[in-house]
Write a structure and sequence with these properties.
With 209 residues, the chain is mainly beta. The chain is 6% helix and 54% strand.
Length: 209
């Protein structure tokens, strides 16, 4: 479903980090020809690149163990098909060949200022196992504290989780910008009052080129 769609070019210019929150994708796309390399938790490597003006592709894997890298390699694509002054929308999909799992959906990004933006995502996972087939809900936001510091947060759950006893995951992070990199220090927590885990600390570093 990736189409080359004409866009209205009155949206805000891209800034480093706009293409995603801490984990959740946004509708925003890097500038044409732009690339990035992200390292999560010192083990999860993500490379992304823009093709044309509207489409971003990427690959994610666990490293440096070669066998893990092969088994966890996951391919992704995001296509921004609508860009307006106050909102943008994009289709996204990821595919893991090892598990034959596909996740596809749409994300809507709202805001006259990306430094104060709201993001809503709906998707669905498709897999060979019955439990792998489920709907996905994502809600997130970003708030710039200064020119170089931002706060990002997001909530993720599944359709079965909303019907059952799973309250979802809450993620938040402090984002620090430099000329070529973005550093994020955050945490992921189960939204469950009975959980004794306050949060799992996370670290993320992204280099843009």
């Amino acid at each position: 479903f990736i189409f080359i769609t004409p866009l209205v070019v009155n949206a805000l210019d891209y800034e480093k980090g706009d293409h995603e929150l801490h984990v959740m994708p946004t509708a925003y796309i890097l500038d044409e020809g732009g690339s990035y390399l992200t390292l999560y938790q010192l083990v999860l490597l993500n490379y992304g690149r823009v093709i044309g003006r509207n489409t971003q592709v990427g690959v994610v894997m666990i490293y440096p163990v070669f066998s893990f890298a092969l088994e966890t390699t996951t391919f992704g694509i995001k296509h921004n098909y609508k860009r307006k002054q106050y909102w943008e929308s994009a289709l996204f999909s990821v595919y893991n060949p090892k598990t034959s799992t596909v996740i596809a959906g749409n994300v809507l990004s709202l805001g006259t200022d990306r430094g104060r933006s709201l993001h809503l995502g709906l998707g669905h996972a498709y897999g060979t196992e019955a439990e792998a087939n489920d709907g996905i809900l994502m809600v997130g936001g970003r708030f710039d504290l200064s020119e170089d510091v931002s706060f990002v947060s997001e909530y993720t759950n599944t359709a079965s989780g909303l019907k059952g006893d799973f309250d979802g995951l809450f993620t938040m992070a402090l984002r620090l910008k430099t000329s070529k990199m973005i550093w994020e220090l955050g945490g992921i927590r189960l939204v469950d009052s009975s959980s004794s885990l306050l949060s799992l600390p996370t670290i993320k570093a992204t280099y843009y080129f």
